[in-house]
Amino acid sequence: MTKNSSKYFKLIALVQVVIFCACGSNKTAVNQSISGNWDAIARIENMVKEPIFNNKVYLINDFGAISDGVFKNTEIINNAIIKCSENGGGVIKFPPGKYFTGAIQLENNVNLYLEEGAEILFSTNPSDYPLKMTSFEGTEMMNYSPLISAHNKTNVAITGKGILNGQANNENWWSWCGKDEYGWKKGMPVQNVKKLMEVAEQGTPVTERIFGDGFYLRPNFVEFLNCKNVLLKGIKITNAPFWIIHPIKSENVIIDGVNIESHGPNNDGCDPEYSKNVIIRNCIFNTGDDCIAIKSGRDADGRRVGIASENILVQRCKMYDGHGGVTIGSEVSAGVKNVYVEDCEMDSAELDRAIRIKTNTRRGGTLENLFVRNINIGQVKESVLGIDMFYSIHGNQTGNYIPVVQNVLLENINVKNGGKYGILAKGLSNSPIKNIVFKNVIIDKVENNISTENVENLQFINSKMNGMSVKSPSN
User: Fold this and answer.
1) If both were cysteines, with which of 134, 226, 407, 472 could 249 make a disulfide (CB 3.0 to 4.6 Å apart)?
2) What is the pTM of this model?
3) What would the DSSP string read from start to end of 340-362?
4) Over the stretch 275-302, which tens digit does the pLDDT of each residue have?
């Protein structure tokens, strides 16, 4: 060996040591990055407080409202809201009774309060929901107004122990999805999602995306668009046409003690989209789709808006029927980060997955920092944790926008019946899923412990499946 070659091999050895040390230090950093950072929960709670309202109370009956379930109170309710807001705000109280109405528009500093026994029944006639800026499955457009909406408002609330009843069923709204199980039959109208996706991909301005009559895109139930300081508390919501609670481009949102029971198509319980500092706590979800689904826009429209959803806190909720207990996706083109889930219960033969992430190469998006702890799960059908970077709906879903999924922690989880998979995770070869940690996770009665493709740094710490300790695979 020559003197020069000796120097060369010494240099190579030194480089290898440096690389080894760097990799070791990176792995330590990775482990720290998915340790939960649970202190962030207190910071979110300190930032997000319930809005405070003027203590002046307006009885809706004093404005002429009739609670017979037949008389249409739309104009009366909206006029009362305007007057309350113009006078500095306060509480509009609905005593027991059934109040039939069309679209309700909330205004600044107004709390819509439903006493126990009060029920607002929403019209199923599309003409009672005039065109308004809204969105459908992560794409903005002009469509039927949500049943209740607040746009560009501050300090708005719906509270009490009453019921919001959308009256949707297989005879109205639901059949538009085009599925037999929801009342659709050959020759009946069906939603035109394809047209909406086309105009969004073409970059058509939102105000020129005119839908409504003839396109059959169902309205959201309760939507807060570009709002701050939002509260929904104590009410029950049932029979929704489409997504049920939809904060979009909103900040400082609290959903507390809401009971959602609605099994229609796309009946997600709560869909925070492009939203920040959202607390969902003490709620019950029994839905026809995901119980909670965190969003940030579909494809080109999501990239145009470019607002990530972040700082989402889910606490002490119960999830029953649904496609997923807590889901991120699939409309996540602007990204989602910093989601905390704790002290929840999930249990239903009709709950497909407990924790779910879904995206694809048309969506893209960076989805990171999902931390879950102290969850009791009775049973799920498919998986305790499902991550799918090939999610497909509405035709071809391949594109050039490579998603990133990383930093997922499940800690102190007990599962009685794990269904088909403890973990079902499918990443891309050019963008593997990174950093999944199961810590103190016990899963019983699961058919397959793990099914993964393109996953890096999967770790098991003090975890068991079917009574046997699970070891971390070598990467």
Assistant:
1) 226
2) 0.92
3) EEES-EE--TTEEEEEEEE--TT
4) 999 999 999 999 999 999 999 999 999 9
d(CA 225, CA 246): 8
Q: What does the alpha-carbon distance between residue 365 and residue 308 come to, in Å, rounded to a whole number? A: 9
Question: Strands 90-94 and 110-114: what pairing?
Answer: parallel
Span 347-361, mean pLDDT?
A: 96
Cis before 330 (ω within 30): yes
Q: Residue 428's CB: how many other CB atoms inside 10 A?
A: 18
- Judged by DSSP in three states, 242 sits in coil
Q: How does DSSP classify residue 50?
A: -
What b/e readout covers 280-306, taking b as 16+ CB neighbours within 10 angstroms?
bbbbbbbbbbbbbbbbbbbbbbbbebe
Cα separations (Å) of 424 from 364, 428, 430, 464, 472? 20, 14, 19, 16, 15
| Spatial distance between the Cα atoms of 112 and 90, rounded to a whole number of angstroms | 9
Contact present, 387 and 355 (Cβ < 8 Å): no
What are the pLDDT digits (tens) for 134-193? 999 999 999 999 999 999 999 999 999 999 999 999 999 999 999 999 999 999 999 999
Question: Pairing mode, if any, of strands 366-379 and 345-346?
Answer: parallel
Tell me how crowded residue 82 is: count the other CB atoms within 10 A of its CB: 13
Q: What percent of the chain has pLDDT over 70?
A: 92
